[in-house]
Amino acid sequence: MQATAFAGDGVEQDYADALRWFLEGAEAGDIHAQFQLATMYYEGKGVEQDFSKALHWTREAASAGLIAAKELLGYMYFRGEGVAKDLVKAYAWMTYAAKHGNSSADYATELVSEMTDDDIARGRDW
């Protein structure tokens, strides 16, 4: 129901309803609800854009193993959104996600171009 309300798939799109469902699921530990909630806050869909809340729910989903959340977390470190920009952590999260089939490689070229060899080594070891 939560994804249906968010996407408007077969029902009228209702961000308020989606937010309620995602929040309930996220607080219960559902990693997909956590990630959807993070995405709503990250993109400002149905809520005021809030990188701090996006970071919180992204970390929850990433620590529970959701690969897409690990990619977003890496991107947030890369861009300095909700956190201090940290290329080493960005590289570590994105590389992990890429190794597990996510599209983090799209950002890798740009990311690596801003890193020193030492940064890359630390990212691999992080």
Strand and helix map with partners:
Layout: H1 2-7, H2 15-27, H3 31-43, H4 51-63, H5 67-79, H6 87-99, H7 105-113, H8 117-125
Helix pairs in contact: 2-3, 3-4, 4-5, 5-6, 6-7, 6-8
Description:
- The chain is elongated and about 50 Å long.
- The mean pLDDT is 85.
- It has helices spanning 2-7, 15-27, 31-43, 51-63, 67-79, 87-99, 105-113, 117-125.
- Helix 2 packs across helix 3 (31-43), helix 5 packs antiparallel against helix 6 (87-99) and helix 6 (87-99) packs across helix 8 (117-125).
- With 126 residues, it is mainly alpha-helical.
Portion of residues within helices: over 70%
Largest sheet: none
Alpha carbon gyration radius: 15 Å
| Count of DSSP H/I helices | 8
How many strands in all?
0
SSE order, as H and E? HHHHHHHH
Low-confidence stretches: none
Proportion of beta-strand residues? under 5%
Outline of the structure:
With 126 residues, this protein is mainly alpha-helical.
Task: Kindly list the characteristics that best describe this protein.
126 residues; mainly alpha; elongated
